[in-house]
Design a protein that fits this description.
The protein is α/β, with parallel strands linked by helices. It has a single domain, classed as Rossmann fold (3-Layer(aba) Sandwich). A hairpin with a 2-residue loop joins β1 and β2. α2 crosses α3. The longest helix has 21 residues. It is globular, with a radius of gyration of 17 Å.
Length: about 260
């Protein structure tokens, strides 16, 4: 599995053994630009509470999150648990907002490829972002899948596009595992970022929680009301995650 160097200058907190970069939204966007300007490949992840619970059970996924160049704090639960463990994350930095803000100021020097979500969703997302920033250069879009048998076609499409930035919306942990495995084969890509359901939100396939819910960190409640079938995943985020963090903290040496 590929390893991607992180920037030692960036302050990080640790939750369940996973490093989270202590950045504001603006700092995260600026950091991605700095990664893009290097000659190395970088994996950007957007850990939330549910993903960290999965990482505690899945050692392969855990290693991936420990080796990324950038982990941004994509849930209020991370901020709460950082504070409870006497650490500090300055702001919730969601993947969907980071992706949009980044694309709003991206120049044609860095073509972007949108991979994942349902048929036509990546394409709609790309063109909506293009409407907001006429300078955004669309390298390509493709629904694809994280299945191994689809990998060679996806790699060929991305390499032919000369994309410098790749957004992958396969959902977690599939997207992180896919990036970790295949990024070295993507010859032009400098930054690959897993963005979960971001395409669905931007394209209007799924409705995001109203702003008050976002501000209060209660998007999980909105999603539970809209999608009751997500109960188990939300339970992991709001109940299992705090329990695991406190347990890990008690068992860690020197605490």
């Amino acid at each position: 599995m590929a390893q991607y160097p992180s920037d030692a200058k960036t302050a990080r907190v640790t939750l369940l053994g996973i490093p989270i970069d202590a950045l504001t939204m603006d700092q995260a966007v600026n950091r991605i630009f700095r990664l893009l300007e290097t000659q190395r490949q970088h994996h950007v992840a957007t850990p939330n509470s549910e993903m960290l619970v999965e990482s505690a059970r899945n050692p392969v996924f855990r290693r991936v999150l420990q080796q990324t160049s950038l982990n941004i704090s994509d849930s209020a639960g991370l901020l709460w648990m950082a504070r409870l463990t006497k650490q500090l994350l300055p702001q919730r930095v969601t993947g969907v907002d980071t992706m949009q803000r980044f694309c709003n100021v991206l120049t044609p020097d860095y073509p972007v490829f949108f991979l994942g979500a349902g048929p036509g969703v990546a394409e709609k997302t790309a063109w909506l972002l293009k409407e907001r920033n006429a300078r955004l250069k669309l390298a390509g879009t493709y629904a694809g899948s994280p299945r191994e048998l689809d990998a060679q076609e996806i790699i060929a499409r991305i390499n032919a596009s000369n994309a410098a930035v790749l957004f992958v919306a396969f959902g977690s942990p599939a997207q992180e595992l896919w990036i970790a495995k295949y990024l070295p084969s993507l010859t032009s890509v400098r930054v690959a970022m897993g963005v979960g359901g971001s395409f669905d939100f931007i394209a209007g396939v799924r409705k995001r929680a109203p702003r008050p819910f976002q501000i209060l960190g209660l998007e999980w409640l909105w999603r539970l009301a809209c999608e009751p079938r997500r109960f188990r995943r939300i339970w992991n985020a709001v109940a299992v995650f705090p329990f695991l963090v406190l347990q890990y903290r008690r068992e860690a040496p020197g605490t």
